[in-house]
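Subject: for your reference before the review

Hello V.,

The reviewers asked for a structural picture of the protein, and I figured it would be easier to keep everything in one thread rather than splitting it across files. Below is the amino acid sequence we used in the manuscript, unchanged from the supplementary table.
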Amino acid sequence: MIQVSHLTKLYGPRAAISDLSFEVKKGEIVGFLGPNGAGKSTTMKILTGFMPASEGSAKIAGYDVFENPIEVKRNIGFLPENPPVYPEMKVQDYLQFAAELHQVPREKVRAAVDQVLAKTSLGDVRNRLIGNLSKGYRQRVGLAQAMVHNPAVLILDEPTVGLDPKQIIEIRELIKGLGGEHTVILSSHILPEVTATCERIIVINKGRIVAEDTLDQLTARIKRGLIYSMLVKSPAQEGVSAIRNIPGVQTVTQVGPKLVVEIQPGSPEVRDQIVETAVKREMGVLEFSTEKVSLEEIFLQLTTIETPNETAGVAV
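And here is what came back from the structure prediction:
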């Protein structure tokens, strides 16, 4: 549904994004994650036709963004970081205006507006001025205008920025419900946002993609079996030393009856050897588990990696 190939955007000699290539399948919700200035918004603007790329290509629903911009806009809905709403208009009138801009057939405009009002739970405020709504409701109106023409692809740039916790939860649930029917790219630097809504993650740093996978697979790639936690009855030093001597074990830290075993990155699986060694040394294994890695840890590791083009990174 979305195909990006070697996309680059230059501002003079500096690259905002450099050689980006990725695909998003039909019905997927994909998180585009990165720190501020990584190049997320630049990529979103290129995909939606707001600005041209310097190199590379991008296709939406089979249409080239640069060669068929009108067809792309028919198939795409865009919610920028600041919703493009008119505060002096009523919600229903604004959505009707948005539908007409997207060339929804005249006889279908009313039905399209009613449908999107229902999807975004805006029915109760349809006749209120947008300027009198809370920020959470204005965000819903912005999302409704992106959906009113029933596009195949939705691109959402920081959709919950500035919202209170209740509003964030509501918008997240709304976005999660769009998967399957729509293909969604969600740009964010807020880690829980991506965890709560996205099936797959693309991590961008300094204009380059540094990782692309599901959250579970990213965790596995960065800390595959890296830390094990083992609770034992008898944490004798002889047994601790034996575990420490297993090839691939980096450190063993003892905290009372709990042993934290850190494995060298890239080492083969040694979980069974650890348990067998503890059993042979009569340590009395009560519990064994893999320490979970948070998205914050993954994010920090990925976005502190030196990129090949360290000097080419002023991104927007």
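For the response letter, the relevant points are probably these. The first helix runs from residue 40 to 47. The chain has two domains: 2-220, 227-292.

Happy to draft the paragraph if you're swamped.

O.
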